[in-house]
Amino acid sequence: MEEKDPHRLSGQLSPVGDHEYGGRPVCLKSTTQEFLFVFSTTMALAQEAFFAGLTVGLTALIGHDLGMTIAEITWISAGCSLTSGAFLLVFGRIADDYGRKKLFLFGMVGFTFAVLVASFASSPIYLDVFSGVIGLFSASVVPPAIGKLGSVYTVSSARKNRAFACFSAGNPLGYVGGMVISGIAADISTWRTSFRALAVLYAIFTMVGAWAFPPDETNDMPLDVESLKRFDVMGTVFIIVGFASLTASLSLAADAPHGWGTGYVIALLCVGSTLLICFVWWESRAQSPLMPLAIWKDPTFSAVIAVQCLGEVGFSSTTFWLSLLLQNVRKDSAIKIALELLPMVIGGIAVNVLCAFILHKVSNQVLMGVGSVAYTAAFLILSLLREEAPYWAFIFPSLILMVIGVDVQYNVTNMYVMNSLPEQQSVAGGIFNTITRLCGNLSLGISTSIYISIKARTDATATDVVPYLFTFRFAAVATGISLLLIPFVKIGKQGGPAIQEVPSVEG
């Protein structure tokens, strides 16, 4: 028997036998409720992706309508990611301590109203601020959704693998779903109609979730003075202000008078970095930390997060700049862009279905390597793109390779992270998503600086393809580096029969 590493918190899960699909959790009274519960958690994860897909296909239209600069356009997505990333850890702790369903419904209702209010934006600052509000609510639903999914499917089984694979499909479904909504709505009306359509859609999802989401456990903490005293207030301040300052510096640098040398950019960068360092120091001493630092003693945990983050750097940057290229260089309409990016959602669904069947049969280290190779190949193909290059020869294969990279790596990482903190599922989800959000913001900040620098150096216009190609090369470098870390991702097959029995029913 293999000796256990004392620093490895999760351990490997045994593969699933042919007869061990797993029973329906007892808290889900019917197959219909189970389906709608998993669907609701998937749509919770999809919130930010829906908004990103919605806006990225409309950036040129929104920018023209509101008179926005390239930096202000970047802030539509950066503002959402800023608040989302800053509050994920906090909401993870709140969900685990005070109840997941209450926080889940709060986030679903808040997101619906925030998107509706944003549709009436009359200025760049109005839209950018409400993008931040939307990010806040999207942050509040992800930890309770992940946490509830993990606490409901406690038995390691093929059934659990498939539930988590469906959940992981939220990102590609949301992103391209948002683009489809924006393309159709903008084609028949204005960009504002697409926001209102998304609000209506999430009003429906909220009602579905209110019925299907199992009730909170009875051992949740009461919201009283004593429980608040135990809450990690200092850690909350450090992570929120630090994350927000660092993200703001990355987003503002692109449009600042002297770029990265501008005084307020340097100040925000220093403040943000210092506070995040203080956060890590404080978490090592806090009695009830937002982020238990013990998980980082597992070298595989650190390696898999690093690979996931480098992939996120490439994916977030490329999806943003590819959409702008299609609008500004190829002059495609919103509906045409939605159709051109449709292979992402079809491919994403297919990859997630495949992951549900192979996570417990194939080495997950190999799968992470496949994801990094697919990412890098996609970005290299796009870096060779020319203005009149055929869609099927360059863009289509790149989209398919990108979804292979993002969905394979997300499935592996998500399952491993959730198994690392079995008693704090929402906190685990918060840690994972906070770090990936920060990397997404980092990639947008760096790639925007690259775009502006190359554009100025080559005297290019918005319709020239060259500056976009350099952002794709930046993405390829990031995911190329991740390949060097694959040997340290020592994950075998994930998913297997339970070690101990818990109540379940067949169905």
From TrEMBL:
Out of the domains of life, which is the source?
A: Eukaryota
Q: Keyword Zinc, does the record have it?
A: no
- What transmembrane ranges does the database entry give? 35-61, 73-91, 103-127, 133-155, 195-213, 233-254, 261-282, 302-326, 338-360, 366-385, 392-412, 465-486
Q: Which Pfam families match?
A: MFS_1
Compartments annotated for it: namely: Membrane
Membrane disposition:
Multi-pass membrane protein
The Swiss-Prot or TrEMBL record annotates one GO molecular function as:
transmembrane transporter activity
Q: Which residues belong to any copy of the Major facilitator superfamily (MFS) profile domain?
A: 26-490
Gene Ontology CC, one term: membrane
Asked if DNA-binding is a keyword of the record, the answer is: no
**Mind listing the UniProt keywords for this protein, alphabetically?**
Membrane, Transmembrane, Transmembrane helix
Write down what this protein is called: Major facilitator superfamily domain-containing protein
Q: Which organism is it from?
A: Aspergillus sergii
The top of its lineage is:
Eukaryota, Fungi, Dikarya, Ascomycota, Pezizomycotina
